[in-house]
Specification:
The structure is a homotrimer. Helix content of chain A is about 45%, strand content about 25%. Chain A has six helices and seven strands. The longest helix of chain A is centred in the C-terminal third of the chain and has 20 residues. Chains A, B, C: Its EC number is 2.7.1.156, 2.7.7.62.
């Protein structure tokens, strides 16, 4: 399992897609973003165009754990893009983020598919004034730590360039 | 002297605690956070639980320089967690952050204890709209530069994984 | 061509100046910041003092491409500080940031001068609530990717310490 971290428009998705393309496996893409406004719809469409053909796409904003179980197969590489949007969706639905994160972290090492997870690093700015934003970045940080601990490789991407943190 | 930088919930405290535990020295923990609301009290309590036993804890939100002088001893490892909260406290008391930072940077190379300093990297987000936040991140950046310049080792921690920047 | 990325007060300008000073070339400094208020005027003056003598300074907030063409010379090292302020100025004038960025990325590999570009990494904080700020960090991220792709060397600077990402 591989974790790819990076900032906004850091090239993390493209880098993760390159990793997936490097495996001679059936490519599955899990989009967690919800197209609730035009800005988000544009972002999703642009990602789809950047990605090109050769992918089976699944859209799942909430039940990531269920979907990963369902599509798990050793003949597949599954790219999840991204954990931050999934966590945002959970928070907006007032779900227990800590519990959902623990479920995901527990499932990942048991999957047979090759899994690549993309996530946004959001904890390197000034402390947000908004309490929900502070809670969110705490959750995101803990989630990244849990997943990085069991990942085989962890990359930090900036300006399209990967820095290997683990593996 | 070692500087450990990282984002919110990046695992920087835990990594620093591991470094301290690796020395066969008497462990002292300097907590700079002030428990002025429930959120902060929770955060401090969680850190204390994560840390476990085997530490002598000092709470000092303002006079870090005085405390470090007082508890300095070659038989000790002193972990300061964290510089960002100390700088926040100084700013809220309208103290001269540049002067206090210079005092700290001057003291550090002269201490006999092994010192490990934890601090938050806060300068990698969008420019804050709030002027005080902009000043704060400028001060924090300058403080990190001063301390990194005289540190033996500097680490940047993300997702619980350390990246050695110096040493 | 060299790209130097870093956060606010990370020491990226000073590191870039050191790289420029290391070349035995005529030193040109391109300041893109606009002194529209006292805070900005202070920042520019402090940078000028930090830099010292031995530089020819050009101030160009908008037409960076035109200026780089004009002063291009194989006997020169040209330090642009910084791309983020240039992009901010373009956005405030409602210019087409994507088009201007593409022009710059196209020009850079064809310049004869040794060029060093400094830019702020702004995409590692929580998603900004302000839509313009979100657009800005998307543009900045794409610009960094384009430039990093054709740069010979890319550095990420934190606490005054450079981390080589490429080269």
């Amino acid at each position: 399992m591989i974790l790819v971290l990076g900032g906004a428009r850091s090239g993390k998705s493209r880098f993760a897609e390159g990793l997936a393309a490097g495996c001679a496996l059936e490519r599955h893409y899990v989009a967690t973003g919800r197209a609730f406004d035009d800005e988000m719809r544009d972002r999703i469409a642009r990602h789809r165009t950047d990605r090109g053909d050769g992918w089976t796409t699944h859209e799942e904003p909430i039940d990531l754990v269920g979907l990963l179980r369902l599509i798990d197969d050793p003949a597949r590489v599954v790219l999840v893009d991204c954990l931050t949007l999934w966590a945002t969706n959970l928070m907006l639905e007032a779900q227990d983020l800590a519990a959902r994160s623990a479920e995901l972290a527990e499932l990942l090492p048991n999957l047979k598919a090759r899994v690549i997870l993309v996530s946004n690093e959001v904890g390197l700015g000034i402390v947000p004034e908004n309490r929900m934003a502070r809670e969110f970045r705490d959750h995101a940080g803990r989630l990244h730590q849990m997943i990085a601990a069991c990942a085989a490789e962890v990359y930090f991407v900036a300006a399209g360039l990967p820095l290997k943190m683990k593996g």
